[in-house]
């Protein structure tokens, strides 16, 4: 009589029919680079599946807007197989490439000559047949650093003795958003670039300097003799 251990048979069936799990990771939640840099956004994955040259692995990089509702744009899609194929979105042609090695779990994306338009979230997605559990995606935020442009200073109100006026200072560009400070004999820090002066007098007239600054650099602009509204840019 043939004896079969049903517990062993059940265990074998469980192992054979089990579903794999993939885990996708990006080392940092945020990366900062200067405008014009060529960069690599790293992405790696581990899987319990066996990958061969014929395994149909699909790796996708997408950009995600930071506003709600989220707008997703597929930038690059890599199709692994006997003859690997990479599709690049037409808006990114010449600016994007992928650096993929599925046997090593590498799924990096390279961005060339980054601009302020690349201030976005980016998602790496890995899809493997039979590997439907686990964590298939990872997201990181790219911050493109841009030094503040020379701020423009303006006077709001009538620059006459006894009047109330507001001095404004703003840079047309800068990433992260610049903070501002004013100086007139003593320092007046105004992070939003607005300095209000009340009941102006001889003591408040004169030379004012506005500094626009972020972590990359600083730019200054000055206002000479607010009683005449003269503006000097440096």
Automatic annotation (TrEMBL):
Record keyword Signal present: yes
Single GO cellular component term: plasma membrane
Name of the protein: Ig-like domain-containing protein
Keywords: Signal
Top-level taxon of the source organism: Eukaryota
InterPro entries reported in the protein's UniProt record: A33, Ig-like_dom, Ig-like_dom_sf, Ig-like_fold, Ig_sub, Ig_sub2, Ig_V-set
UniProt-listed Pfam families: Ig_3, V-set
Domain Ig-like: 20-140, 148-227
PANTHER family tied to this protein: CELL SURFACE A33 ANTIGEN
Signal peptide positions (record): 1-21
């Amino acid at each position: 009589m043939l004896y079969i251990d049903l517990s062993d048979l059940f265990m074998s069936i469980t192992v054979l029919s089990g579903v794999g799990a993939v885990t996708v990771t990006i080392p940092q939640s945020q990366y900062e680079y200067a405008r014009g840099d060529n960069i690599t956004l790293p992405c790696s994955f581990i899987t319990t599946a066996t990958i061969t040259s014929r395994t149909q692995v699909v790796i996708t990089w997408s950009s995600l807007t930071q506003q709600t509702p989220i707008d997703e744009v597929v930038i690059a899609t890599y199709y692994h197989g006997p003859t690997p194929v990479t599709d690049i979105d037409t808006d990114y042609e010449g600016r994007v490439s992928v650096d993929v090695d599925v046997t090593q779990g590498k799924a990096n994306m390279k961005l060339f000559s980054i601009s302020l338009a690349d201030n976005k979230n980016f998602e790496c997605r890995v899809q493997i047949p039979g590997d439907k559990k686990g964590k298939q995606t990872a997201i990181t935020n790219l911050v493109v650093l841009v030094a503040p442009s020379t701020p423009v200073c303006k006077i709001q109100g009538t620059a006459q003795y006894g009047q109330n006026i507001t001095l404004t200072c703003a840079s047309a560009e800068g990433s992260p958003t610049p903070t501002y400070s004013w100086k007139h004999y003593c320092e007046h820090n105004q992070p939003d670039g607005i300095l209000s002066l009340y009941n102006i007098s001889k003591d408040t007239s004169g030379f004012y300097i506005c500094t626009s600054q972020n972590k990359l650099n600083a730019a200054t602009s000055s206002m000479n003799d607010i009683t005449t509204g003269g503006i000097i840019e440096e």
